[in-house]
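Suppose you are handed a protein chain with no further information: no name, no annotation, nothing but its sequence. What can you learn? This example shows the usual starting point.
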Amino acid sequence: MVTEANKRVFRRFYEEAWNTGDLGIIDELLDTNFVNHELVDVVGSHREIYKQALTETREAFPDWETTIDDLRACLVKGPGQLLPHLISNPHHRGQTAFDISCGRRP
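A reasonable first move is to predict its three-dimensional structure. Written in structure tokens, the prediction is:
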């Protein structure tokens, strides 16, 4: 069951980690055994890799801000799962691992 406490933690994660770049919140909220299922065959701490990716993303998009437009229970994935509607619209100002800065929104 999704509780208001679950929603507060989710909001806090995005507001503090993504919107301000506070890496300490990642250590606080993500377990040391956190697994990012988007990473395949990656050796090492997924939590540390996530922090590195967040840092690189915020360097490339320094005005990054994510707005949580809606947050509700996701009945398809099972109890306790959240279905967020997130909006991010940063300007591309720095270099990423894939390309160079263009000054435009992605």
